[in-house]
Amino acid sequence: MQKKKAKIRSCNVVEIVTPKKVLLNGLWFGPLKPRRAIIWVHGLGNSAFSKLGIVEKLVDKKIAVIVFNNRGHDKVNRIVHAEEGKIGKTILGGSAHEVFTDCVDDIQGVINFVKRSGVKNIYLAGHSTGCQKSIYWASRKKGKGVKGIILLAPISDYSAETYLKGKKKIARAAAAARALLANKKPHSLLPEALWPEPIDAQRFLSLYTPDSAEEMFTYAQPLKTPRLLQSVKLPILAVFAGNDEFADRPAKKIAEWFERNTGANLQTLIVARAIHSFRGREIPVAYAIRKWINGI
User: Fold this and answer.
1) Is the pTM for the entire model greater than 0.70?
2) What is the pLDDT of residues 215-250, one digit of tens each?
3) HEC profile of the chain
């Protein structure tokens, strides 16, 4: 078996301050005065380093890609404010504790940062749960300052976990989460016996219940109208993994649902033999993104 060689990638380290004064760390790949900039919104528990295999294939003399750690990076992290003179009260983030709606502040902070750098043509690229965050930002901010959104493996977390864990397990954990909320303990972790991965009550209900704001790709609920998704009018490229291990149905069926239910100018693509991470299929993904950006 051939050993994978280590790679050295050239980039600039950036510090981003959001409108609510949260400090986010990021990396700027490519030219500092690009014609186009893609802001990468990573998925649940991932980080700025998660999809560099795609990023490096997007960057050229005219395109920059900015990756950053949003408040949901890794399992648990401490949210840092820019104006902290010393370490004060600890507010936890990460996939276990983040508040989904804070994604609007995170994404807006990066957009503001990139605009101040003089870039006019800005695109969002969300992967996995980063897709929900990108669409939610666009619905709240009416897509101002962004020319289009790229959705990579846009999968409903609710349908994925129901498919993988079963309805009964989800229902038991949801009942425990609601009990914690009723006792004013939204950030208490669910018991390990109910859910082995660390996750607090409010985060569980946001991810894995059918009526949350985060459950916007409602292909598992045929009678529900996805009004939040339909409110977004920016051009969208939706790229699906042909062998997505988190999908409860074939990629073609999910793509068709998006085509029926998206109110924007939508283009869909299924990458054959790709898993959810697109590992090993980075080239066709990057090619599709480049072609789409050049066409809108």
Assistant:
1) yes
2) 999 999 999 999 999 999 999 999 999 999 999 999
3) CCCCCCCCCCCEEEEEECCCCEEEEEEEECCCCCCEEEEEECCCCCCCCCCHHHHHHHCCCCEEEEEECCCCCCCCEECCECCCCCCCCCCEECCCCCCHHHHHHHHHHHHHHHHHCCCCEEEEEEECHHHHHHHHHHHHHCCCCCCEEEEECCCCHHHHHHHHHCHHHHHHHHHHHHHHHHCCCCCCECCCCCCCCCCEHHHHHHHHCCCCCCCCCCCCCCCCCCHHHHCCCCCEEEEEECCCCCCCCCHHHHHHHHHHHCCCCEEEEEECCCCCCCCCCHHHHHHHHHHHHHHC
